[in-house]
Design brief:
It is built from 19 helices and 19 strands. By secondary structure, it is α+β, with helices and mostly antiparallel strands. It has two domains: 32-119 and 428-633, Chloramphenicol acetyltransferase-like domain (Chloramphenicol Acetyltransferase, 2-Layer Sandwich); 131-420, 2-Layer Sandwich (Chloramphenicol Acetyltransferase). Strand 14 (464-469) and strand 15 form a beta hairpin. The longest helix is centred in the first third of the chain and has 24 residues, at 143-166.
């Protein structure tokens, strides 16, 4: 699974309309034990992603449709599924082709995901595809503190890069199984390049001449900063501070054309502007420098002041989109896999592209950076003994055609920024300790609370999922845990029914959580329905056979039309994950747990009048309180 995100497909565009299929932003956090090891030596020993049995997937699919489609639709779909999977039929043929593909590729699903969820997806990266990680607020409030913090952050990233390059980064394990570490080698020195029909990903970290520089953007002006000395050692914090100070002094607020705003355009418009840009050699060289850089560092200007209570919300918007064309949205290069963002008022974090790596991988880096910053006491910056070369500004020749694209980007970016509704709630009434004391899976419990909250708001169940990691398989990305089931529907419908006894409600909750845990096991073991069905449909398109009716059926559209996209991403350092909704009508919800509280970050779009992120958070808080009260009133027997 795969947004991994909304997608548009060839021939299958009718099957997956623009923006229909959901995204899997930040993957489910898991308790991973770490052991030191050279991780690429164990990659070949990882298993390949299996192809689930066709009958199993068909039966599983029908069961998942029960709470979200009408009876007549389900009856029709059952007939289509029976036709699809009958002996000697098209389903059997496609299954054999997929099994052959699985034998001949490292991961049959990831290739489809990258191509259709990212490369061919034409929505803007900002908000719609990229995700954010908000760091705990720092105590600086001025330019010097910002520059000092940025220097320490860059130094920490370079330390982490050394572990990646030397393959001394600890191998991660889940459930005793080693996890694929390939994404770590893709998160730095990489970039997404716009194309007319599809984008491409470029990786420079393992090239014969790997990059030794970062790009720094300040007041929407770009600079190239070499971060290694001539002897190959990384610059010290002192050296980085001096270089960043030079950049800030060399980039006053002037009426420079904000080229970075172009990366906020939809991919079709940006690809056309990109082609115009690279006709000029200066532009082409500047773009190449940005694309090859290890990462981009964004030294943001001030933003409207917010109270400490609203910091997470304002910082989340700052990290996700920069506030609009009048604030910091042009002080970005959203195509870069990793952007370090440091604001003057103490807001900081990462903006990250999903194309190259998943959220939990970035979160490991974020935790490392925050821990490194916190370990180092603020020191007096000393001037470097060895003179450093002055950072070079990147120049762009702006034609009237490019100027037109920039103005278009400003307008569309402002619409995107104004449309995103982001809310943060720290639920402090209890955390995972209370749930574990009840011998309850905290994640399954929270998922049922989310289901109950949605049902209370809309009096219906909706297609929803939780993202899970597939990294125990070679080149694995993410899979869907299906949160809406017949068991969850029975629970939420009974919860507020005065005719139902508490013991019956607790029993229904137990069953719903048990099904969710089973679905989780199926997803992380590679037995996911969505990825399998999409793989079969993609093969039908590749082999140019008539698209099976089961994939053009209304039930299949509804199955993929997720209205709730959820992800558990717990950070050791208190970093908050955030992502934009995949669809106009959908919510995105990231949450993290500690022993004593649960933090939720919910996003929606203002233009969808039916959705209300603030209300959903309030209803969710009440659901969590009511469910705990239910457990207190009717203790579980097991």
């Amino acid at each position: 699974m795969l947004r991994i995100c909304t997608r548009t497909m060839v021939n299958v565009g009718m099957l997956y309309p623009y923006g229909l299929v959901k995204s899997c932003h930040l993957v489910k956090s898991v308790s991973a034990s770490l052991v030191t090891g050279r991780y690429f030596t164990h990659q070949t020993g990882l298993p390949s992603l299996p192809v689930p049995p066709l009958q199993q997937t068909c039966e599983y699919y029908l069961s998942l449709l029960e709470p979200i489609v009408e009876m007549e639709e389900l009856k029709r779909t059952k007939e289509l599924v029976e036709e699809f999977q009958k002996a000697g039929g098209v389903g059997e043929r496609l299954q054999r082709s997929l099994e052959m593909k699985a034998r001949n590729t490292d991961n049959w699903s990831t290739g489809y995901a990258l191509h259709y969820d990212y490369d061919s997806n034409r929505v803007p990266l900002v908000v719609h595809s990229n995700v954010g990680a908000v760091f705990p607020q720092m105590d600086f409030k001025d330019k010097d503190g910002q520059t000092r913090c940025a220097a320490r952050m860059i130094a920490a990233v370079l330390d982490f890069k050394t572990m990646i390059d030397n393959e001394t980064l600890p191998v991660e394990y889940m459930g005793g199984k080693p996890m694929c570490m390939k994404q770590y080698s893709q998160m730095l020195s990489s970039c997404r390049i716009p194309g007319l029909e599809k984008d491409s990903l470029v990786f420079h970290g393992k090239s014969s001449n790997p990059p030794k520089h970062i790009t720094v953007v300040h007041n929407s002006q770009f600079f190239v900063l070499d971060v290694y000395n001539s002897d190959g050692t990384p610059l010290t914090v002192d050296q980085l501070y001096v270089q960043l100070e030079r950049i800030c002094n060399s980039s006053p607020e002037i009426n420079a054309e904000p080229v970075g705003i172009l990366t906020t355009l939809d991919r079709n418009s940006w690809s056309k502007a990109y082609i115009s840009l690279i006709k000029d050699k200066i532009n082409k060289d500047s773009l190449s420098t940005i694309e090859r850089s290890i990462c981009t560092v964004c030294l943001d200007g001030p933003i409207p002041q917010a109270s400490d209570e609203m910091y997470n919300t304002y910082a989340g918007l700052q990290i996700m989109h920069g506030g609009g064309s009048q604030w910091n949205s042009a002080n970005r290069w959203f195509d870069k896999t990793l952007q370090l963002i440091i604001g003057e008022e103490g807001a900081q974090g990462f903006n990250m592209s999903h194309s190259a790596a998943d959220g939990t991988v970035f979160m490991v880096l974020a935790d490392y950076v925050i821990a490194s910053i916190n370990r180092k006491k603020p020191e007096k910056i000393l001037s470097p003994v060895v003179p450093l070369p002055k950072p070079q500004k990147l120049h762009f020749n702006i034609t009237p055609d490019i100027k037109k694209y920039i103005e278009e980007a400003k307008q569309s970016m402002d619409i995107i920024a104004q449309n995103l509704d982001l809310r943060v709630m720290v639920f402090s009434h209890y955390g995972k300790k209370v749930l574990k004391d009840h011998k309850i899976s905290p994640d399954a419990f929270i998922q049922m609370a989310i289901q109950l909250a949605y049902y209370r708001m809309y009096q219906r169940c909706c297609p929803s999922y939780e993202a899970a990691s597939l990294r125990t398989f070679r080149d694995g990305r993410v899979a869907a845990i299906y949160s809406t089931t017949s068991a969850s529907a029975a629970f939420v419908k009974a919860f507020d029914d005065p005719k139902k006894k508490n013991t019956e409600k607790v029993d229904l909750l137990e069953k719903a959580m048990k099904v969710h845990r089973w679905n989780t096991g199926m997803a992380i073991s590679g037995q996911e329905v969505e990825g399998h069905l999409i793989g079969l449909s993609m093969l039908a398109a590749e082999e140019e056979i008539s698209m099976p009716d089961v994939f053009t059926d209304i039930s299949f559209h509804k199955f993929l039309d997720y209205r709730l996209s959820t992800s558990q991403v717990t950070s050791k350092s208190g970093c908050l994950p955030c992502a934009g909704p995949a669809l106009l009508e959908s919510y995105d919800m990231c949450y993290s747990l500690t022993n004593v509280d649960i933090t939720f970050v919910v996003t929606a779009y203002h233009t969808c009048k039916e959705n209300n992120a603030a209300q959903l958070i309030q209803v969710l808080e009440n659901a969590l309180l009511d469910m705990r009260a239910l457990l207190a009133q009717s203790p579980r027997t097991n």
